[in-house]
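During the first year of the project, the team set up a workflow for recording each protein of interest as an amino acid sequence followed immediately by a discrete structure-token representation. This format lets reviewers and collaborators read both layers of information side by side without switching files. As required by the reporting guidelines, we include two representative entries from the current panel. The first entry is reproduced here exactly as it appears in our internal archive.
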Amino acid sequence: MARSSVAGAARFHHVALRVPDVERASRFYAEAFHAAIVATGETKRGRGTRHLFDGGVATTVRYAHLAFDGGAGVVLFEFDPSVAVPVAEQTRDRLMHFGIGVDDVPTSLARVEAAGGRRCFDPRDDGWGPYLFLKDPDGHVIELMEGPFERLLQRFFGRDEATTKPPLEKAVLHHIAIRVADNGAAVARYRAAFDATDHGVVPVPSELAELFFEGPRGTAVDVAVLGLPGGVGCELFTFSRPEKPLGQSVQSHDAVMHLGLEVDDLDAVGAAISRGGAGHSTPTSTERLDRSHSMRTPRGTQSSLRR
């Protein structure tokens, strides 16, 4: 992925998902979205798992890293011992869903369903291009959208620069959706720490919110739309109805575990995160990875930073 000249700029690297069977989940993402399997079948044991995933000392973790076109992708984790992957509830979950951009929604949907995924509703077009929500075989919610994130900005906010983007040849990571208590405060933190671009805050019509998030009648939510260098978006949702408190993230129990961001200057970003009120770990490194941080926002959402 291209490096930015801004020390605090962040490129989206991955979204981490907890799964009961890492081989089965890997096959799904490879078959449904042509994701490339970068690494699979690896095992980590011991105290490092407590540090990284809030797991027990004896936890064994098997993982697979799959990359979409452009480099960003998903990392799948299987824990042993494990607890059942919870059913997605977007009005409650911190990390609500992630978006995948494709060239043609109906064609991609056929591959998804053949690979074992299921649609939450039929494809729609409400003015920003064809899209739908679906679930993978383990119940993680995915928004399938036509075109890259820049095309959404052009159609939704009238951004002219998006019109020059070519059609997608392969699936790309489109955006990540995060539930926050105050999207105004969250936008300020993401701009300061990661050089994110603020594209504005818009209300989600209640009939769409009920459909998207399987919420009760009268679901009310606003979304702040951010852009990160590299063309991946970040959507910050604040629900006023139903208003549910944000609980603490525990990665060994959460369905969507954390977000991975790639930065140029880990120490500078770590300092910016601390000034914003978030906690983070001491940077660590392994033979396979450059230095990395684990951090939580002031409300407890988990992120992983790497250089």
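The second entry, processed by the same pipeline in the following quarter, appears below.
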Amino acid sequence: MMSPGILFVAPWLFDGGVERVMEQKARWFAARGYRVRIAVAQLRATLSGHPNPVLARFKTLGIPVTVLPVYGPRLHITQRALGIAGLAVRNGSILVGHDLLANLEVLVAKRMLRVVSGRSPKATSRSSFPTRGSTPSRSLVRGACCRPPTASSPCPTASGAR
């Protein structure tokens, strides 16, 4: 039986905080038998004239790093999401995004995989994510009030009044 795979996605691979957190997670999962892979939008082999230390550590651990290419001046998020979806299909990966842009690309890739597989999305529902023209469910606005509640005038949304 094939071990589960995890694909960590980040917008870049330099030598900062996101990279260090991703490295710790990748090391932990790889030590426990998971197939770990890293996908980045931007990779630099050298930093300030020296070899990229994070890239070197991933090579030492045997964790492959893939650069997600983009073509042309537009649709970069969509192109990277297609690359992420392709890696996930080939490797049977769990997708984990690091940083805002990578999270967006992972979400788009997951949506693409749901459409291709024919399964209906189960992560969202109409009650929790309103569509255009609909009103949010009561649970979303409960307790959200323009003024703090007091003993004489409690929050109208928390008490059920409209």
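For the second entry, the following points were noted during internal review. The CA atoms of residues 97 and 106 lie 6 Å apart. The radius of gyration is 21 Å. Both points are flagged for discussion at the upcoming steering committee meeting.
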